[in-house]
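Workshop exercise sheet. Pairs work together: one partner reads the sequence aloud, the other fills in the structure field after running the prediction. Swap roles for the next sheet.
Pair: D.N. / O.F.
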Amino acid sequence: MPLELMEHFLEMTPLFGHARLGEEHLSPHMRAYVVSSGISLSTQRSLVGANRADCVPLHSELLRLYLKKGLVASNVAKTYRYKKKPRFEEFVIQATESRRQGDSDPSLALHANMAKLSVNSVYGKTITNKENHKNVKYFQDPESVSAMIASDHFVSLEEVGDSLCEVVNHNRDVIGAPKSALRAFWPRLK
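Structure field:
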């Protein structure tokens, strides 16, 4: 990133990647916080923001926007062509036809119902917003609670009893925090 753009991207860096970070990477303030919170100081894989990176996959629209803002791409290693077309078109046509045949011929009602069930399950699976899915776990030992709080997926903590805590985390299949951060950051780029 050119030096003159550093201030523009000061609040949130344009590039993200994963890195292994340990105690040696912590500032004195963060080290004191980690120690006082009882969080493990072991090396962990973390999502980090950067002003410079090698081999970072970027969507062409995002790359175009970054280049327009003045970022420099020294090399494009690989590109992928995407042909925009209706999704599941053949499947939808076949299912619709099966349902129509089932409506007109009662002997094909079973096929029509199976087609309806297939469409409903495919629709439900692909359209579900998994960012709303949460994992709830209960812990009694403070070390496990500290580890869960330190996770990128942490949402909330509630004491249920004298020695029992309920910890709510985002589903690990979903990258919630980075996606949300990118959504918040995107309008500022334009």
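Discussion prompt: The mean pLDDT is 79. What would you look at next?
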